[in-house]
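Complex 317.
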Amino acid sequence: MITLDILPKLEEIMEKQGLSPAIKDSVIKCSHFHSFPAPGLLIGVFMTDYALELLKATPDERLYGVSETHKCAPDALQAITHCTVGNNRLKVIPIGRFAITLNRKSWDPEIEGVRVFVDLDKLKKYPLIYAWFTNDPSFDHHGDSLPLLEEILTAGRTILSFEDVIVTTEAKKKWKSVICTQCGETIPDYLASGDLCMSCAGTHYYFRIGRLSALAAPKHSRPSRAVSAATRSTSLRSTCGRVRGGGGTPDNQILTHNLFENHTNQRRAILFHSKGFILPSLFANKFLPDESQCFIQPIIGYVGSAQFASLILCAPV
Ligand SMILES: [Zn+2]
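Predicted structure with zinc ion bound:
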């Protein structure tokens, strides 16, 4: 396994190869940024250095980068050119080619740039890099690691090719803040799917399994149509009839629950997670004695066929 401990050895190799101080500094800086000197990162250092030279640019200019892979190369671009995902000057497009593009700032819809890529023909001179790069089973990820890094530092930019390109630029979007009607969180209008954020519209990357530190639906949010009947209800009893699978059958098994208070909103709440739907009144008496003052937040976190559901009961503090 490659770790930062290998850096002194790499510095020795770079010294022996007569690499420039800029490359040596970049290899060290990028390795710390990336957390270890990965093979793809070292290639990314040479790619970025080459692209800067071809563009006749310096790292302190306002540059824009694209990486066609999420593997390693974006970190070299970020650490050397300060194009980052966060400052919106780096895009990672999951094409899968080991290539980067660099260009300057432009107010026009197009700008000249340079694209640098790993050239498979040139790789053939370097059997270890070729085997690793093509994910050949013959490559030994343990024994060959240091020799691979040495081969990459030896090869430098000789395994790279470039092309001059025209890059299309994106005009800065004007946007309004809108509130998702289901989760109550804000999003830019151009990312909304109807009146929902993409997550509530179905693009889940998580489902909640434990604590929730705030009430799910702030006062300014409106419940979505799908859950509005439950949310608008101010009485547990009137809502129970609308919750399928009620009656305390074994299907309605509570997996976890959390009691929490939110003094800002003057509510305390219980978050239940269950397999399938749950019947609020079974639990309300135990935790929220004055059920007439309770209301129910939307059933949230229901994940398709996984049959998980969450429910929040709220009451004045
Ligand atoms: Zn939402």
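Residues 39-54 form the longest helix (16 residues).
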